[in-house]
Amino acid sequence: MKLFSLSLLLFLIFSTNLLFAQKYVNKNRLRSKFVLEKNKKEYYKKIETNIYQTLKKEINSSTKKEWQKALIEAESLFLKNRRISNAIIKALSIKTDKYIKLQRAALETAYATDPNIFTTQVNRIFKITKDKISYAIAGNYLLRTNTKSITKVFLLNDLENKFVSWHKNPLLKSFHYYLKYSPKEQFLHQPSLKKLFKHTFQKGKTIIFSIHRRNRNFPGITIIKKPDGSFVKNNDGSIFSIPQLAVSFSNLPGYIPNGNTPTGIYSIVGTYISPTKSIGPTPNILVRTPFEVSPDIFFHKLNRHKKWNKEDYKNLLPISWQNYFPIYQSYFAGKSGRKLIIMHGSTDDLSYYKNLPYYPLSPTQGCLSTKEIWDSKTGKCIVSDQVKLVNAFRSTKQNQGFLIVIEIDNKEKPVTFNDIKKYLN
Question: Are residues 330 and 265 in the same domain?
């Protein structure tokens, strides 16, 4: 996911919804100049050059934004070397909370880069920061280190003592929950998946389910339920499904900005073609996070309250799911400011991810991505699960609905259709 103007995005939404409503996408017509070998090499070479040139500069009020961008770009390219590590240490060593956004970027990149070598710097920030996002990222980093004294119990006590009103802050409330309850406990108390898949959510709307493991390095799958309650099917009569990835470059939890895609409910408000070259020309399914748009837009004008209220979100859910905290992750993430999460394809250089479990899918800044393969000589699209997804969505004859992102267990392998088919009957 790349960030761009929200006003431009909204304009694109409404204009392209009219243009593409119910129109099927022809993969064979998709072209991208960006994927051509020469163009892509120049693009990534320029990014890497800018990263290393920036990281040679001193950190001050004039260069802090450049440093922030360089660290996030290094993270997105999975650059791991001494120069990057030294730069992270340098950024983490400046006065705590002096440059908050740079501090967050450095912590995030540290988390994505190595679980141990930045322990001293991260621990210092963790002890004295007043920034809740920095605190949560630092806490998650320390939890993965070899430091025996850093346990979930220790972090829980520290959180409760440092932030007395933690339960009033959506990010700290989520952090507290995931510290208090182990994955085993969370999934043990997960309500019926069968009831979730059967639930209407809102009459006459299309529902997309994106189903994942706790470990987001393993791809999940996506299925689509039509307004009549049946699932979109393939030509052979089997239920349509495609692999989908919900991991961010940082692989931080979803309640943290730029973390993995949060679980929970999103509003589907249409489709559009992104102007971002690395996302590509394939239409995206546009979803909105709670608080990102007005309740009227999110709930398709069927909300009871004009201002954001947890009750409207809760009432979308089956009764048995209404008290299950993980299904509210998108609600609290949205309240914390997460936005611009979409379902898209990719023209990224897949060689950066070839040694990762999800290859040939692409990580993002928190979006849901599907596999696309492009010809570097002709610019043609060879394979596109995103085209399949968009066409399956448009086959429901609805341009609005809801996306439900869930985790089903903590197994260390990709989700397959066999994992969920027993819940769809």
Answer: yes
Is the domain of 310 the same as that of 202?
yes
d(CA 175, CA 298): 25
Omega within 30 of 0 (cis) for the link into 257: no
Same domain for 225 and 291?
A: yes
CA dist 152 and 178 (Å) reads: 9
Same domain for 206 and 336, yes or no, is yes
Is 164 among the domain residues? no
β-pairing, 206-213 vs 401-409, is parallel
- Residue 144: half-sphere exposure toward Cβ, Cα within 13 Å: 18
Q: Into how many domains does the chain fold?
A: 2
Give me the tens of pLDDT residue by residue for the chain, a chain 425 residues long.
344 444 445 444 444 443 444 589 999 999 999 999 999 999 999 999 999 999 999 999 999 999 999 999 999 999 999 999 999 999 999 999 999 999 999 999 999 999 889 999 999 999 999 999 999 999 999 999 977 889 999 999 999 999 999 999 999 999 999 999 999 999 999 999 999 999 999 999 999 999 999 999 999 999 999 999 999 999 999 999 999 999 999 999 999 999 999 999 999 999 999 999 999 999 999 999 999 999 999 999 999 999 999 999 999 999 999 999 999 999 999 999 999 999 999 999 999 999 999 999 999 999 999 999 999 999 999 999 999 999 999 999 999 999 999 999 999 999 999 999 999 98
Domain that holds residue 268: 6-30+192-423
In this structure, are residues 123 and 142 in contact, taking their beta carbons and an 8 Å threshold? yes
| Residue 374, domain member (yes or no) | yes
Tracing tokens 């085209």 back to the chain, one arrives at 387
Does residue 163 contact residue 134 with C-beta atoms inside 8 Å? Answer: no
Q: Cα–Cα distance between 291 and 267 in angstroms, integer?
A: 11
Strand-pair partners of 266: 403
CA distance 18 to 11: 11
Q: Which amino acid is at 73?
A: E
CA distance 391 to 393: 5
Task: Give the pairing of strands 220-225 and 242-244.
Answer: antiparallel
Instruction: Give the three-state DSSP class for 305.
Output: coil
Matching residue, tokens 């996030």: 72
Query: Do 121 and 255 sit in the same domain of this protein?
Result: no
Query: What helix, strand, coil percent values describe the chain, rounded to 5?
Result: 40, 15, 45
